[in-house]
Amino acid sequence: MRPFRPGWVPTLVVLALLPGLIALGCWQLGRADEKRALLAAYAERSIEAPLSTAQLQQSDDTAMRRVHLYGRFDAEHSLLLDNRMRDGQAGVELLQPFHDQPSGLWLLVNRGWLPWPDRRSPVAFDTPTQALALDASVYVAPGSTFQLHPDPVGGQWPHLLTAVNPTQLWQQLAREGFAHELRLQPGPATYRLDWPVVAMGPEKHLGYAVQWFALATALVLLYLYFGWHHKKENNHGRRHHSTGPA
């Protein structure tokens, strides 16, 4: 049987890269499982009866819960979430404080997406002045939003932001408010509502996992091939040298 001698350098390269490639593939598989669980939870909770704000405050698991609200918007303290794209068009999402009258609780409600094609002009929107009965769902961000620099605090309203932080808003306004964003469901006072449940579906994570595992497999096959091929070339070189002219 031909001996296997790949050499120190290829061995060190494989030992350095192979665990990382396998770990990345396993991480993508884990992310796919998380996204499937998230989609299943969303489907389950989308058919549940809405909670009242009092029930919402007592719940330990508020993510994606449907909530029934009754009250008024605060038109003076609007937030515009920047860098929101729809169909290749730039725009913002409009978020406004909403005072729920039965509970007295303030909630930050996302009314949907608005186009903003010309930044020389302010975003055009209106705010209902009458009391409204609304249904919304709690949005709990999966992690911190990446920002090149933090959003400025204070300044003229409406505030243009790149990340939503309800707790910071309630501290700024000296109000008692709910800690997470609520996204309106179709009804009065809404703009364009088409938020994806997850930014990247489980099938994409599976695709990335396959790519990482394929790279790991290719690395091992190349290592095995050159381990035997290198020995064969060395033997051929020695035979050629021994039959040369004296």
TrEMBL record:
UniProt keywords (A-Z) are:
Cell membrane, Membrane, Transmembrane, Transmembrane helix
- Can you cite an annotated GO cellular component? plasma membrane
Q: What is this protein called?
A: SURF1-like protein
Output the PANTHER family linked to this UniProt entry. SURFEIT LOCUS PROTEIN, SURFEIT LOCUS PROTEIN 1
InterPro entries from the xrefs? Surf1/Shy1, Surf1/Surf4
The UniProt entry's sequence similarity note says: Belongs to the SURF1 family.
| Membrane-crossing residue ranges in chain numbering | 206-226
The record's subcellular locations are: Cell membrane; Membrane
Q: Which domain of life is it from?
A: Bacteria
Q: How does it sit in the membrane?
A: Multi-pass membrane protein
